[in-house]
Design a protein that fits this description.
- The chain is α/β, with parallel strands linked by helices.
- It has three domains: 13-68, Winged helix-like DNA-binding domain superfamily/Winged helix DNA-binding domain (Arc Repressor Mutant, subunit A, Orthogonal Bundle), CATH 1.10.10.10; 76-167 and 273-307, Periplasmic binding protein-like II (D-Maltodextrin-Binding Protein, domain 2, 3-Layer(aba) Sandwich), CATH 3.40.190.10; 169-271, Periplasmic binding protein-like II (D-Maltodextrin-Binding Protein, domain 2).
- The protein is 43% helix and 23% strand.
- The chain is built from ten helices and eleven strands.
- It has helices at 13-25, 28-31, 36-53, 69-94, 105-121, 135-143, 189-194, 205-216, 230-238, 286-307, and strands at residues 58-61, 64-67, 97-103, 126-132, 149-152, 161-176, 196-200, 222-227, 243-247, 259-262, 271-279.
- The strands form two sheets. Strands 3, 4, 5, 6, 7, 8, 9, 10 and 11 form a nine-stranded mixed beta sheet that branches.
- Strand 7, helix 8 and strand 8 form a beta-alpha-beta unit.
- Helix 1 (13-25) packs across helix 4 (69-94) and helix 5 (105-121) crosses helix 10 (286-307).
- It is elongated, with a radius of gyration of 24 Å.
Amino acid sequence: MFNTLFKESGLSLERLRTFCMVAEHGGFSKAALGDSVRQSQFSHQVAALEQFFRTPLFERRGRTVVLTNAGVDLHRRAAMILGQLEEFKLRQARGIVKLRIGAGTSVQEFLLGPVLIPLMAGDASLHVDIESMSSDVCEEAVRGYRADLAIARPPRASRGLTRHTLAKSRLVAIVARGAFPETDEESSLVELGKLPTVLLGGSGVLKSSTLDVFRRAGVTPNLRIESSTFLDVKRFVTAGLGVAYVPDYCLRAGDEKTFRSWIVPQMRSMRREVVLFHLAERARDDAFKALVGRLVSDLRRLVVERDRTSPPR
């Protein structure tokens, strides 16, 4: 069995791990954390793998490296093998189930965190590793076996993936109670555009879509603050520093005491779909399937509860 693999030396789990580290860091020096001895060791280990597989795995570009087509294929396979072996070892040694989740900061803050806390409190065997990443990176991480599942906007390609819709959230305007008393659901885009505006920063779809609504109406909003997370956006609004536009899943029970919120008519059709997705093949693992089922159920229940806090449709 596996005679071709073991006819000659050169292949080892340690070398595969090193290869994955170099691929994910984009260079030998970064993977070795600047340690010249380790860097030399990593270089020799990858060279041994390239000799074993008789193909280049990286293209060297100065101090950085880029995976070749063969390297991309090997990275996908090696990450899957190492991840499954680690999970098996943990499960056999201490009965621990390790779950690697990719998600953006807003999903972690307002959806994932509230659900994981009681879930992990009731299951001491569950170990969760959450990595912050954009939706596009989430899909790459799941397909590359660097994440077991992701919670993000729908993946661009659904082939080979199983997805569960968690929310189709609406965009709501929020202002602190007592601030800008002249502003309400009857306010026009011209009136709203004059107010100090707080938005999620970066180059995301939500920011560009919100600004496009104003621009189509010939209005340039008074953008005063751009923040990295919805949690900080809400903090700025709480301080009375402006009006913000956030997905309704960011509204928690009790927020109605702090904010006035409403749906701007021109933004009524805007939806931010959030899904949980994973490789379809993972559903063959009964333990994984049951855990995902529990997560999906708890997340959908939370979304329904949050929906009661949102402005009327």
